[in-house]
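User: Can you predict the 3D structure for this chain?
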Amino acid sequence: MEIKLLQIGPPKCGNYWLYNIIQQIYRLKGIGYKSFISKQPVYGEAQDWDLSHSLQAGIDMMDIERGKCFYRISSAFRTPIADLDEYLSHTNHVWTHSEVGENILPVLQRFNKRVYIYRDPRDMAVSAARYAFTPYMMKYYPHNESSVESYLQNNLQDIVQSWIWHVTDYLLLKGKADIHFLAYERLLEDFDATLAKLGSYLNLPLNRDEINEIAQRVDFRRLQAKDPGHVRKGKRFQWVNAFTEDKKERIVDKAGPLLKLLGYPEEPDEKLPEDANQFDFAAVKEVEQELKSPGVSKV
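Assistant: Here is the predicted structure, written as C-alpha cells:
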C-alpha cells in the first residue's frame, strides 16, 4: 500500500526538522518524492517569493477547517482542495498545523499514517517570539512589539493556551486515528531510538547505517547553513532565562496537568519526556477535565 502520511504539530515544535527526517526516510527506502503543489501553476511563481525556508514552496501544506481542506504556500497563497482523493493521489507527505475542529476525524482517516510532533510549550514560546522578528514574519505577520521580551510578555498567554488544546485534542484522538506521537526533546537527546520507533510505525524499519546517515543529513548545523532564517540551535530549557519566576509559576499553574502527563518538569532536569504513545484515553481525559476546571489561572 502506498504511504499517505500526514505530519501534524503546533508551530515552532520541530516541524521543519521532522519534515526533513521523513523525507530522508523516504529517500533511503526508495519512496519517490510526490508533491501536489509542485504540479500547480502557482509553484513556478512561488520560486521568486520571499519565503521562510528553501523547501517551503514545494511542501504540501494543508489547512483543515470544519472538515474542509485547503492547500497553501506559506501565508502568501491558499485555495480550497476541490477533490481530496485527487489531491492525495499526487502526494505522499502532507504537513498541517491545524487544530482539532469540527469534522476533522474523517480527513485524518483519509491518510494511512499520521505523525504528531510537540515540544515543551515554554521553549516553543521562546522560539515563536524570536521567529516573530524574522523578515519573513514581519512581512506576513507584522506586529508592533519592540523586543522578544515584550512579544513574550504580550503573547505568552495565547501561545500557551493554543498549545494546551492543540496537544490535548490530538491526544484524545489517538485511538481513533492511530497517531504516532513524537516529543521534540526525544529527537534531540535520544535521536536513534526515537527515529527507529518512527521507522517501525511507518512500516519502514531502519538499520544502524540508515539511522546514522539520516542523523548526519538532518544535523542542525547542516540545516541551519541551508536555512539560517528558519533553523536555530534547537536546545532544551531556553525558557529558564527567558521568563521571570512569576511567569514560570503561572505557566505551570495553567498547563501543569498536561506538562506533568507529558513529563515536562517544573525545573530543568535530565529526564526525557514521557512516550505519549503509551498514554491511555482515560489518563488524557482526566487531564482534559483538570485543564477545564475553574481554578486554572491565566499566564
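The mean pLDDT is 93. Residues 85 and 118 are 28 Å apart (CA to CA).
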